[in-house]
Amino acid sequence: MDCYSPNPNPSLSALLFACLILNRLLVITMADKKLYESFSKALIDEVHTWGAMKRTGVSLRYMMEFGSKPTEKNFLISSQFLHKELPIRIARRALELQSLPFGLSDKPAVLKVRDWYFDSFRDLRSFPEIKGTNDELLFTRMIKMIKVRHNNVVPMMALGVQQLKKDMNSKVQNLDEIHQFLDRFYMSRIGIRMLIGQHVALHDPNPQPDCVGCIHTKMSPIEIARNASEDARAICLREYGGAPDVKIYGDPNFTFPYVPTHLHLMVFELVKNSLRAVQERFMDLDRVSPPIRIIVADGIEDVTIKVSDEGGGIPRSGLSRMFTYLYSTAENPLGEYSTDAMTMAGYGYGLPISRLYARYFGGDLQIISMEGYGTDAYLHLSRLGDSQEPLP
To answer: 30-34: which pairs have CB atoms within 8 A and are 24 or more residues apart?
Structure first.
């Protein structure tokens, strides 16, 4: 009988539902057992308490205006804010890592990530009240180490989900719940790393001109696009022995406030995908590959960056999967345990994470494709800077 057809036996439906709930409870119990083996009950209870607290979002404009006055008083205010805000955000993610569907919480890679979050929560809550400059400097050093601790979260989570898919043997095709969790999880990670990175960068005694922490007040999108394209072409040359040209159009004198590392990551990912598509389409043909075209448009509300290629496009049936995790037309570079992030194509995280980076400051990423010809990616960046960061 089709499992999606109306069931004439209500008692059987109830039994199936009860089995599903029981399975979820057993999964949570197994994860909880491992948690209590690693951490004290008092710490776990504290994580539950802090995970229920209200978070406070900030905007790009607020970060820029506050950071433009790097005084000891402002450093103290910033550290006191992070001393309370970071444990709330980290606790929410730690709890969610504890109750993921399909047994994902029990995968070794995910357990490792969960432990990082609990360790970071414990470090933050163990730090005493910040009252003066010495406290603030010690706190800044500690959160800098927390940021380093979480450097490999993305490949570790990718490995955990790959382990899950391998164990399921494709029995469960609908991973919407996993995708929704990963969107929340990575958006939160972007926010946590931005808050820490901005606070730490403000302590730089020799900041770059026109920089306020991580934010460049006069960032040139043309320059960032050029640097990201050169990096992507270098990888394409390494992988294939050749790379299409990249043509960039726009006002070279135009600047606006943004985070250069965020934009570099997004443009790099889009250009990398286009280079790979064009190179694979034309590498065996006796003709010159068409260039990738990048157009930067300066609007009133948005700065839009369009990346166009003639790499053959994407079938309409595949467009809906472009922003789902684990969708990639390339081989999985993780293998069993590899965490090499510099391969030409990845484990399906580039586009969805790029879209999260765009949305973090009120922008977006859209893909329009013409099968048989090529693909256009539209990266929208809010130039107003007053959007509150999303708080998943």
So the answer is: 30/103, 30/106, 31/98, 31/99, 31/105, 31/106, 31/111, 32/98, 34/106, 34/111
DSSP state of 348: S
CB 256 within 8 A of CB 221: yes
Per-residue pLDDT tens digits for 350-383? 899 999 999 999 999 999 999 999 999 999 999 8
pLDDT, tens only, 183-195: 999 999 999 999 9
pTM for the full model?
A: 0.85
The structure tokens 């999606």 sit at 4
The counts of H helices and E strands in the chain are 12, 8
Quote the CA–CA distance of 254 and 262 in Å, as a whole number: 18
Rounded Cα gap, residues 239 and 233, in angstroms: 10
d(CA 306, CA 365): 10
- Asked if residues 75 and 203 have their Cβ atoms less than 8 Å apart, the reply is yes
Residue 364: beta bridge partners?
Answer: 380
Decide: 215 and 67 in contact? Cβ < 8 Å. yes
**Which residue in 151, 162, 108, 175 sits closest to 346, CA to CA?**
162
Q: Give burial (CB, 10 Å; 0-12/13-18/19+) of 237.
A: middle
Q: What is the three-class DSSP state of 6?
A: coil
Residue 125 token pair: 């809550």
